[in-house]
Amino acid sequence: MGRAVTVATCALNQWALDFEGNLERIIRSIDIAKSKGARYRLGPELEICGYGCSDHYYESDTLLHSFQVLEKLLESPVTQDIICDVGMPVLHRNVRYNCRVIFLNKKILLIRPKISLANAGNYRELRWFTPWSKARHVEEYFLPRIIQEVTGQETVPFGDAVLATKDTCLGAEICEELWAPNSPHIEMGLDGVEIFTNSSGSHHVLRKAHARVDLVNSATAKNGGIYILANQKGCDGDRLYYDGCAMISMNGETVAQGSQFSLDDVEVLVATLDLEDVRSYRAEISSRNLAASKVNPYPRVKVNFALSCPDDVAVPTCMPIQWRHHSPEEEISLGPACWLWDYLRRSKQAGFLLPLSGGIDSSATACIVYSMCHQVCLAVKNGNADVLADAQRIVNDETYIPEDPREFCKRVFTTCYMASENSSQDTCNRAKLLAEQIGSYHINLNIDAAVKAVVGIFSVVTGRTPRFSVHGGSSRESLALQNVQARIRMVLAYLFAQLTLWARGMPGGLLVLGSANVDESLRGYLTKYDCSSADINPIGGISKTDLKNFIQYCIENFQLTALRSIMSAPPTAELEPLVDGQVAQTDEADMGMTYAELSIYGKLRKIAKAGPYSMFCKLINMWKEICTPREVASKVKHFFRMYSVNRHKMTTLTPSYHAENYSPDDNRFDLRPFLYNTSWSWQFRCIDKQVNAL
């Protein structure tokens, strides 16, 4: 009897609407799975078209090209003698569904539509798809003619069913269904399904990986079984980084773990497992067996194929392993670095330009680029031909082999310190030293002439010359003069990004990197259209606290000693005049709150869904040892005034790597008005009433 089944799952770096590249990566993953003896291969969610197609799902072209790719897959000799499970959108009776298409030897076995759609945070699946609401119900799906000609089938089963092979039973879940409180694997397991599959499009968030792993392991801990999870990886065209972590679990324990961050476009995980281990595990769970005797059965699609061999007693099976999680500092070092590499190679630019101020934020951004260079050199050393080809194209040298991260950094990364009369020599030195240690091509320039020219135009037109506060000017004048400096830096950053390589006799242009952190964006502590306005921002979803920890990690792991002085210096914008040659302006004094407080406000506002009154009620308990209720009220009011006054800045926020669940990104994650009544009169009156009562 067949006992040992060999199954494969994968993490693929798919790209929205890149049908050619997506097909090639799918074929490659199936080929690897077969070469390792797998009889079943699972791929990520919507892998044929790429998960992030967004409103392109409305287009008939997306459906057409998905079926054209499916046709190529069905015809390919690589897909023979292995059950292939691929993801694509399907229109059934004029309703669009997010589907798994499962086929074997040029025959489609089942089209399984998604039952629970992801529709929170960054996900908008209900905008494009309809959930399948007919539990345990199967209908006939009429295949397009191009598919009929390959399969010889006119119709195939479409709906909520499971596959019954000659040796076991398989049931599919799709991403969100694992996270739902009534996950299909519960009822499927009770109905005798032994292998559960989950194709995901799950993106990276700091400290999230363990939740996904725990869910997979718990899915089979109570009910027994084998759970196979596939996931997308990489940047498929927007702010998200899909972080792989393909895995295989049995009876509540992980038996195979894929990488969370890697530059490999195709990663395949294969495991051989004993079905008898599932059956014996279930045998002694009496509560499970009592529930199973009353379960409503699933429709079964019979498959004349086995995942095991008849004589497999001597076949070795996989043993449980301990999952290794990355620390948050490692996640920051690796996730945004991989995202930057995908963005760089797919945008076909020649590198990055970063305005490097000598502060923590821009220095952290520089370290992430340096980490990217490390990852590229490591991938090339390990024989990754795709990464080598991309690196050679980016530097415009077909013979080039990146071996030293500092040398590669010199070729693809330009840093620029933009001094003004308000800049200190300390920040200039810190920026220069860090650039030397990471190897970037570094530029020093002074913006004073441009600032004076712009302010001079205003003076000529109005006959008035604005002054800083320390020189007797009003706060309006001082803020305007600070903003002029900041905006000129943005203009110069783009000029140098376009023409620096031209001036050096090299082809191509550079992508401008922003470096505003998530807390500053939440508070609005940035100038609209200043250096925070860039092409992309790798730290825009990361808190100041996490960035400081990341800087310490870089000191220890990359030996970047220049970061020590950057860590010890108080954060400052350096936009106001120096006092006795020293910086008098600091970020936290300007903001009227600390970065630690900002993180708490952000989590309460977004994750805890707290308005002003609810936030006050929570904080009077959280801060009862350090603040009176009246002080808490003052802090909460100040935060909400500043947040609402500056919310308009989020509409133009640079696309940022999504890493925190309290991100204020206005694009699709944090949907709020940008014109508020900033007095919050009713809400603040409720707070005042409570303060007086206390």
TrEMBL record:
<dbReference type="InterPro" id="IPR036526">
    <property type="entry name" value="C-N_Hydrolase_sf"/>
</dbReference>
<dbReference type="InterPro" id="IPR003694">
    <property type="entry name" value="NAD_synthase"/>
</dbReference>
<dbReference type="InterPro" id="IPR022310">
    <property type="entry name" value="NAD/GMP_synthase"/>
</dbReference>
<dbReference type="Pfam" id="PF00795">
    <property type="entry name" value="CN_hydrolase"/>
</dbReference>
<dbReference type="InterPro" id="IPR003010">
    <property type="entry name" value="C-N_Hydrolase"/>
</dbReference>
<keyword id="KW-0520">NAD</keyword>
<comment type="subunit">
    <text>Homohexamer.</text>
</comment>
<dbReference type="Pfam" id="PF02540">
    <property type="entry name" value="NAD_synthase"/>
</dbReference>
<comment type="pathway">
    <text>Cofactor biosynthesis; NAD(+) biosynthesis; NAD(+) from deamido-NAD(+) (L-Gln route): step 1/1.</text>
</comment>
<dbReference type="GO" id="GO:0005524">
    <property type="term" value="F:ATP binding"/>
</dbReference>
<feature type="domain" description="CN hydrolase">
    <location>
        <begin position="5"/>
        <end position="275"/>
    </location>
</feature>
<comment type="similarity">
    <text>In the C-terminal section; belongs to the NAD synthetase family.</text>
</comment>
<dbReference type="GO" id="GO:0004359">
    <property type="term" value="F:glutaminase activity"/>
</dbReference>
<protein>
    <recommendedName>
        <fullName>Glutamine-dependent NAD(+) synthetase</fullName>
        <ecNumber>6.3.5.1</ecNumber>
    </recommendedName>
</protein>
<keyword id="KW-0067">ATP-binding</keyword>
<dbReference type="InterPro" id="IPR014729">
    <property type="entry name" value="Rossmann-like_a/b/a_fold"/>
</dbReference>
<dbReference type="InterPro" id="IPR014445">
    <property type="entry name" value="Gln-dep_NAD_synthase"/>
</dbReference>
<dbReference type="GO" id="GO:0005829">
    <property type="term" value="C:cytosol"/>
</dbReference>
<dbReference type="GO" id="GO:0034354">
    <property type="term" value="P:'de novo' NAD+ biosynthetic process from L-tryptophan"/>
</dbReference>
<dbReference type="GO" id="GO:0003952">
    <property type="term" value="F:NAD+ synthase (glutamine-hydrolyzing) activity"/>
</dbReference>
<keyword id="KW-0547">Nucleotide-binding</keyword>
<keyword id="KW-0436">Ligase</keyword>
